[in-house]
Amino acid sequence: MLPEDFYSSLVGSISCRNAQIRQLVTLLDPRFPDPSTIVIHGLHATGKSLILGAVLETLGKACAIVPSRECITTRHLLERAIAASKDTLSGHDHEHRLDLDRKYDGKCESISAFVVQLQLLLEGRGKFVLVFDGIDRQREALPTLLPAVARLGEIIRDLTVILVITAPQARSLQLAGVPHVHFPPYTRAESLSIVSSLPLPITNPPPKDDDSSTSSVVQHASSKTDAASAVGETDSWLWNSFCGAVWDSLGQAAARDLVSFRAVCCRLWKPFVRPVVDGDCGPREFSKLMVKNRALFQSDDPLKEPILSLQSATSTTFQPILAALPHFPRHTAHLLLAAYLASHTPPRTDTLLYSKSSQHATRRRRRQQQQQQRQKLPISNATTPSRRRKIPRHLLGPQAFPLERLFAIFHATSPSPPVAGGELMAQVATLAGLNLLLRASSAATVDESSGGGGGGKWKVGFGWDFVAPVARGVGFDLEVYLAE
Fold this sequence. Notes:
The protein is an alpha/beta fold.
């Protein structure tokens, strides 16, 4: 197939990105040498990853896509790139993959080791495309990572590196002559065309917001005729008019990306068509519907993400609410509790609160009994408040703590057998990747090369509302350890 045929097939399946598809097809034309590096940049939810994957699949390019935002350290990113390349070259054949693992161990402690591993892996295999999706959002990235990755195509033969980023910075690649493909935000006409291609019926409830991803919205934009015939011409007309009103009132200022715009439309659709379902208005009386539902378009409540679903909030049972609570393994839950205590208790009380000697245990038990008795006293018989009122510790902000104190509190409060230090460091790295543990200093690291114990100071990224269900789930009385 000629590039023009590739372009026609892609434009027929993906709408509103004709110029970007033509640029990518021209750059990756199999009849000409591929460029060593390509930069694709654009804001969130503009179809970068979707269209790039479709172009590579249509052209039949051997490629490996690495989601950089899911990697923590540079070594994690490089080793995952080697693993993804092995999967592509083996064709997901188990025996072939085992053979590649025996030949190449895949350990990449530095950029130089990664170049050697990738060069040996791709030797004599033809053209190959390596995609780093969201590499500008890489955690703990070295300052030399982006320029080094951009020059891989100059070092390794028949390799093309594609960098998918949000916004390119001046001289960040330290390389001249790199082709850039820009994905601008969707305009009003393009957003309405894509969202209107998936109309919702009036009688049935809208789908969940989680289903409104860029891939599902953009990829089905060409099936507008089938979707409209499925829900009816009247429903499709009302949905198109409703989407235009949502864009003019909320989407233009606050929900500019396609995913947010689709989510807001789905969230407002059911209350908007309730007068039609009740029989107060007809589906063609759009002006009357706008007057009845003008309060929906005057508030910013639809822009707020709900914590619990509507079924969980209105249900009389606690089962949906319990299912929505955070669930962690037992060791991880106790590590989170230890981190919360390290952030909300002063270090001078560690001996009193966490010591396992009989004297301190007796004090802690007596303090717990006094606290329980104080809670049972009526207001009239309560003791006179002190002159200096103290704020409860769980209402204050988190304080920084070193990892040594975290592990000490964990071993003192966890009833489970002791855990190896390497496993604890891996859990700390995972919690840091989930933003549950935040770095409070520039020296905070979980690198094993720094003596195995990490360094710097940390603090928790959650509050009492998050940790209280976790403590109840493992049967841990958290309030006993919170020093006033």
